[in-house]
Amino acid sequence: MNGGRPLAVVDVGSNSLRLFLVEGIGADGPEGERHSVVIGLRRGAAPDGSMAADALGRLDDTLAEFAVRIGEFRPRAVAAVGTSAVRDAPNRARAAEVVRRNTGAGLRVLTGEEEALLAFAGARLAHHAPGPCLVLDVGGGSTELVRGSATGVEGTASLQLGAVRCTQRRLWGDPPAPEAIAALRAEVRPLLAGAVRQIGGPAPALGVAGTITTLAAIDLGGYDPERVHGHRLSAAGVEQHLSRLAAMTTAERCAVPGLEPARAPVIVAGTALTAEALQAAGQDALAVSERDLLDGVALAALRPDGVAGVALAPETLDL
Questions:
Q1: Domain CATH number, residue 238
Q2: pTM attached to this predicted model
Q3: ∠ Cα 117 122 125 (to 5°)
């Protein structure tokens, strides 16, 4: 084992590939440099969920860039996790090979429940109220909802609903037809309502991950993580963003301040999911958190017994 910094976390998401270079655990949780690149791993997936060759190529190319940063950072260990796109894919071993080749680490494919628990563990770092909260994580391939408090998790739900998945399923036009958006909302509404009931009912909401932080950035006129963190995103504002973004073409959305162009093709579906999730949770707003799954993975990898019932064994490296 080298004497370097504690940990590098790689999150292979359905839409984004992320890297967290963890310097240590501070008073507010894991601290360090974060990087995120939209690679669209689920884009072009086969009907059975198999990842497309060009998507795996984008994963390989971006991980090669991340590998340079990891080498410069010299962590003692690397923890790599995969979420919905990898979880669903019969060819998930291909993604694991790419991760191993570039980072030296094995890929831990999280179950939906593990993903929800780790997202909750990260988001809870930003929530200091004593009562329960409801964490909403709208991802590319799945949406996780978790209810709990400082004393523990009360319930989790992981749904096969995500910004990329729902775009592929329903929103084919550019811009998408109003009828298609209405059909998507009607489809997801009972699923989200059922999930909220399953996890224990409404509670003050915390929102994490790319769709929700992007909506906060649009609210603010640009992405600044310090301003996004803690931003109050209202249900009325989400509905306004949905109406505006849905009326634009993808090219027009690329010019919206705060919206990363690579997210422009899927932001309408993600916004619709966020709107319906807020309705299902009975909330008129949510607090946006930059603390999320990455933080939960870091905590689970650095603590001997893991967190929230999830233990991870990162790969020790000699870089």
A1: 3.30.420.150
A2: 0.87
A3: 125
